[in-house]
Amino acid sequence: MKSFIPKNPGDARGWKLVDATDKPLGRLAVQIANTLRGKDRPTFDPSVDTGDFVIVVNAQKVRLTGRKLEQKEYQRYSGWRGGLKRFTASTMIEKHPDRVILEAVWGMLPKNTISRKMMTRVKVYRGPEHPHAAQAPVAAGF
């Protein structure tokens, strides 16, 4: 018997379109991370990058359950003394809704060089418009 090892698809990757309207942030991030890794394919291999591109629209309308809008905090550190900045989730969704989704997806991926490459294939947009119509994205079923 021979073992099947999938090849890197290169330019043959698919494009999935996800609408984040009223979807819980964590559940959305899990589905996006699984699509990026290629776990939705029968030929999944953790050591080979076989995932698709993911376009997320309406990032501003993502939903957080419970009291996470007031209690969840995001941090940034400039590297200088006193350079720690903290933001609540409501502030982040108002100013940078794309970063909220990107940080949630990053948390779902393994921390290695393959996942850093995967993160370049996530495209997040605040509203319903996106510039990737030429790639003919397929609406994802999640």
Q: What does this 3D model show about the protein?
A:
With 142 residues, this protein is α/β, with parallel strands linked by helices. It has a domain of 93 residues: Alpha-Beta Complex (Ribosomal Protein L13p, Chain: A), CATH 3.90.1180.10. The chain contains 5 helices and 6 strands. Helix 1 links the parallel strand 1 and strand 2.
Keywords:
4-stranded parallel β-sheet; alpha/beta; 18% strand; 142 residues; 30% helix; Ribosomal Protein L13p, Chain: A
Short note summarizing the structure:
With 142 residues, the protein is of the alpha/beta class. It has helices at residues 25-37, 68-71, 89-95, 97-108, 113-118; strands at 15-19, 53-57, 73-77, 84-88, 122-124, 138-139. The chain contains 5 helices and 6 strands; from the N terminus they run E-H-E-H-E-E-H-H-H-E-E.
Average pLDDT value?
A: 95
CATH architecture of the domain at 14-63 and 97-139: Alpha-Beta Complex
Summed up, the helix count is: 5
Our Rg estimate from Cα atoms comes to 17 Å
Backbone shape:
globular
Question: How far from one another are the termini?
Answer: 36 Å
- The percent range for strand residues is 15-25%
Sheet of most strands:
4 strands, parallel
Write the layout of secondary structure elements.
Elements: E1 15-19, H1 25-37, E2 53-57, H2 68-71, E3 73-77, E4 84-88, H3 89-95, H4 97-108, H5 113-118, E5 122-124, E6 138-139
Parallel strand pairs: 1-2, 1-6, 2-5
Antiparallel strand pairs: 3-4
Helix pairs in contact: 1-4, 3-4
